[in-house]
Write a structure and sequence with these properties.
With 124 residues, the protein is mainly alpha-helical. The chain has one domain. Helix content is 60%, strand content 0%. Helix 1 (7-13) packs across helix 4. The chain is globular, with a radius of gyration of 15 Å.
Length: 124
């Protein structure tokens, strides 16, 4: 049974950045001091905080997150609903939420490929 895409899936993926996930002051400071409107800084942040969690997911769960982002990016979704009442440690307002999500998608696709390669047995 295929699960219908939901913006709550995206919120789950971004929970690391949520104030409700206040577990580590170093992470919170890293999030707050990152310019999330700069692709390089944002990608670096995703690599440090999203990647370690994302690669722990089972392959099907990783693919579900990818499919969800792809689904909403193929529509006119502006992703306001993802961040509405979702308080983050980001100091800055995300100026282009669609661009933010496109970069997130690029990153999690790469993480998924890396994790899948690491999970596959090497054939000699």
């Amino acid at each position: 049974m295929k699960i219908k895409p939901s913006t709550s899936t995206i919120q789950g993926l971004l929970f690391t950045y949520c104030v409700e996930n206040a577990k580590n002051s170093d992470k919170e400071e890293l999030i707050a001091t990152t310019n999330i409107n700069d692709d390089g800084e944002l990608e670096s942040l995703f690599n440090k905080l999203t990647k370690p969690e994302f690669i722990k997911y089972k392959s099907a769960e990783r693919q579900r997150h990818i499919d969800t982002l792809e689904h909403f990016l193929e529509t006119d979704e502006n992703f306001e609903s993802v961040f509405y009442l979702f308080d983050t440690h980001f100091d800055d307002e995300i100026t282009d939420k669609r661009h933010f999500m496109k970069l997130l998608l690029e990153c999690i696709r790469r993480y998924h490929l890396e994790a899948t390669a690491a999970e596959s047995p090497t054939v000699l």
